[in-house]
Amino acid sequence: MPFDSHIRRGHPIMFGLLIFFGIIEGAITTWLTVMYNNYNNYDSVSIRDRIRLLCFTSWWTVFFSFIYLLLFLHSASTGSILTSVASHLIFLAFTWLLWTAGVASLTAGLGGGLNCANLPRDIAYCSQLNAAEAFGWIEWLLTTLLISVVFICGIRSRRRGEGARGQLIVV
To answer: Which of 70, 74, 75 is nearest to 167 (CA)?
Structure first.
């Protein structure tokens, strides 16, 4: 089926992008967390805590996306429970909730983003905060796209009579 060839090609690409942008987001938020811990120069406790949430979420995404990528490459259509539609939906739904909470709260805390050149006062690490927000939204978008595709795969699996235990790819 043509949809299966798209899944077979697209899964590694999309999870690779999740890993790539997750490493970037993780590096930025880890650096911000270290700076905040060392110098106590955060603008507010809420921004500090939101950065910590994004730090956790980015490394969570990198770790589990790497595992799902390896599992998919190993046994995409052979019937592993870890490569099933249900497993993907559970992982992606929880990850989507973490990204939504983290990046939406950071965006709200920053007032939608910072114009570092026209601030009435200095905010420590202004550009890094903007980068963390931007890469967080990229991760959120990728996760949203992936969950939509896996949901479509779930509908196909249900129509085949396999339910949520069905694989993303039909043999």
So the answer is: 75
Tell me the pLDDT of the chain (171 aa) as tens digits: 567 788 888 999 999 999 999 999 999 999 999 999 999 998 899 999 999 999 999 999 999 999 999 988 887 666 677 778 889 999 999 999 999 999 999 999 998 888 888 877 788 899 999 999 999 999 999 999 999 999 988 888 888 787 776 777 776
Compute the CA torsion angle 82, 102, 136, 144 (nearest 10 deg): 50
> Phi/psi class of residue 44: alpha, beta or left (left: φ > 0; alpha: ψ in -120 to 50)?
beta
Full 3-state SS string of the chain: CHHHHHHHHHHHHHHHHHHHHHHHHHHHHHHHHHHHHHHCCCCCHHHHHHHHHHHHHHHHHHHHHHHHHHHHHHHCCCCCHHHEHHHHHHHHHHHHHHHHHHHHHHHHHCCCCCCHHHCCCCCCCHHHHHHHHHHHHHHHHHHHHHHHHHHHHHHHHHHCCCHHHCECCCC
Strand partners, 84: 167
